[in-house]
Amino acid sequence: MFTGIVEEKGTLAVIKQNGQSLTLKVNASHVLTDVANGDSLSVNGVCLTVTSFSRTDFEVDVMPETFEATTLKDLKRGSEVNLERAMAAHSRFGGHIVSGHIDGVGTIRRREKRENAVYFDIEATKDILRFIVQKGSVAIDGISLTVFSVSDDTFTISLIPHTLQETVMGSKVSGDQVNIECDMIGKYVEKMLQPQQQEAKSSTSLTQLLQENGFY
């Protein structure tokens, strides 16, 4: 579990691809201070397991499902990535609940500077947009951000200079793709409401059937 507060930017030192699987070696410093094999690290918002490490880097494996569902397959040697260690029970909760399980990939359609902020319009599928709520939370490449507006096919986020400097979003431009994780609470609420919705639909269908056969 993560909070969406990026701890540092790492640099991809080695990328090995075998079909639809990857092994990534990432240069880092801060996240390595207490790392151990088997630890979870968020890499551009994707929860990955540390398989080996040294004082200057760590390695993770990317399986085919993650390869297909995220932007990790587009990384190149030298690419910067957002890094965050799993949330500690005794630490402050600065962002929102982030699982590191990506819901889909979005495309930046507009980047616009407004005074001390930069606005991004991100295009996403309807399956993602149904969980995007104005003033709600969303994780973009692992960054906990607030949604400022939602349209039929895009949503808008705004970043302050500190976030732009400390994360990979500072170098993103129109046309770039990003990993999106919707607010987990919204997904659980929808799951819990599904039986009630199905029951309501069944009830409506029964009423219509009775009416059509002269019982109402």
TrEMBL record:
InterPro entries: ATP_synth_asu-like_sf, Lumazine-bd, Lumazine-bd_dom, Riboflavin_synthase-like_b-brl. Keywords: Repeat, Riboflavin biosynthesis, Transferase. It holds the Pfam family Lum_binding. Its EC number is 2.5.1.9. This is Riboflavin synthase. Pathway: Cofactor biosynthesis; riboflavin biosynthesis; riboflavin from 2-hydroxy-3-oxobutyl phosphate and 5-amino-6-(D-ribitylamino)uracil: step 2/2. PANTHER family: RIBOFLAVIN SYNTHASE, RIBOFLAVIN SYNTHASE ALPHA CHAIN. CDD domains: Riboflavin_synthase_like. Residues 1-96, 97-193 form the Lumazine-binding domain. It comes from Shouchella xiaoxiensis. It catalyses: 2 6,7-dimethyl-8-(1-D-ribityl)lumazine + H(+) = 5-amino-6-(D-ribitylamino)uracil + riboflavin.
